[in-house]
Amino acid sequence: MMKLNHVSFIMDGNRRWERASISEKKASGHEMGLLNMMEIIKYCSGKIDEISFFTFSSDNWNRSIKEIYKIMKLASKYSSLLIEECASMNIRCKFIGDLKNLPDFVYEEVIDIERKTKNNTGMKLYIAINYSGRKAILEACKSSFYKHIKSGKSSIDMTESCFSSEVSPFSNDPDICIRTGGGKRISDFLLWNFSYTEFFFEEKLWPDFGIKDFEKIISKCSSIRKNLGS
């Protein structure tokens, strides 16, 4: 049976869920998606060592200003709740991506969350925001090269482990990645880390993806044996 050390989520379908909403007071798909993420976090706490969520791609800046603003305001709105939940479950939260180019009010919240949860010793939660897998690899190349040159070493001496420590903050690469919304692509997420990841592509939109759906996927993992190329 595959032991799940790290589960990754590509949360697709928030906008389609909102458009399909028939409630009198139209719910925000992004807000429902965020609340669903919180439920998944609660479920995973104490069961899995690491979880990661793809919340906002660097390519998402191509969306309308109105939608981007709504997403960023939601991120700020729920920052206090995330801190409270992390404190109650002893979760350490770390953000990955081009954080310094986020709006100032979001960047400040991100730094505050990381600071207030850094001493927690339970599950590690990674939230990818303004993230690009290609850019992460490029920046890791630059950083690794600079450190080698500065230390007097040749770039020829660079090893995979040295490079990996620059591009990836994880203790474990994702064992499984779940993408909702019917798409069958990874959309520039964790390109360095998905070498042996098992993918599960779900038709349900992210706000509709529940704990029972997650448990069904976990049960499927009991029949998967990872041989890592052997």
What does this structure look like?
- There is one protein chain.
- Helix 5 links the parallel strand 3 (92-96) and strand 4 (124-131).
- Helix 1 packs across helix 2, helix 4 runs parallel beside helix 5 (104-117) and helix 6 crosses helix 7 (160-167).
- It is globular, with a radius of gyration of 18 Å.
- It is built from eight helices and six strands, in the order E-H-H-E-H-H-E-H-E-H-H-E-E-H.
- The protein has a six-stranded parallel beta sheet, sandwiched between helices.
- It has a single domain, classed as Decaprenyl diphosphate synthase-like (Undecaprenyl pyrophosphate synthetase, 3-Layer(aba) Sandwich).
- The chain is 42% helix and 15% strand.
- The chain is of the alpha/beta class and 230 residues long.
- It starts with 5 loop residues before the first strand and ends in a 10-residue tail after the last helix.
- The model has no long low-confidence stretch (mean pLDDT 91).
- Pfam families: Prenyltransf (PF01255).
- GO terms for molecular function: ditrans,polycis-polyprenyl diphosphate synthase [(2E,6E)-farnesyl diphosphate specific] activity; magnesium ion binding.
- One of its GO terms (biological process) is polyprenol biosynthetic process.
- This is Isoprenyl transferase.
- Catalyzes the condensation of isopentenyl diphosphate (IPP) with allylic pyrophosphates generating different type of terpenoids.
- Strand neighbour order, sheet with most strands: 3-4-2-1-5-6
SS element count, helices:
8
How far the N terminus sits from the C terminus, by CA atoms, comes to 17 Å
**CATH class value:** Alpha Beta
| Radius of gyration from the alpha-carbon trace, in angstroms | 18 Å
The name CATH uses for the topology is Undecaprenyl pyrophosphate synthetase
Largest sheet: 6 strands, parallel
| Corresponding CATH superfamily | Decaprenyl diphosphate synthase-like
Model regions low in confidence, pLDDT < 50 over at least 5 residues: none
Order of helices and strands: EHHEHHEHEHHEEH
Overall average residue pLDDT: 91
Beta-sheet strand percentage? Answer: 5-15%
Please estimate the helix content: 40-55%
CATH architecture: 3-Layer(aba) Sandwich
Report the principal-axis shape.
Answer: globular
The tally of strands reads 6
| Class derived from helix and strand content | alpha/beta
Binding site for Mg(2+): 12, 198
Pfam family, one: Prenyltransf
Protein name: Isoprenyl transferase
Active site: 12, 60
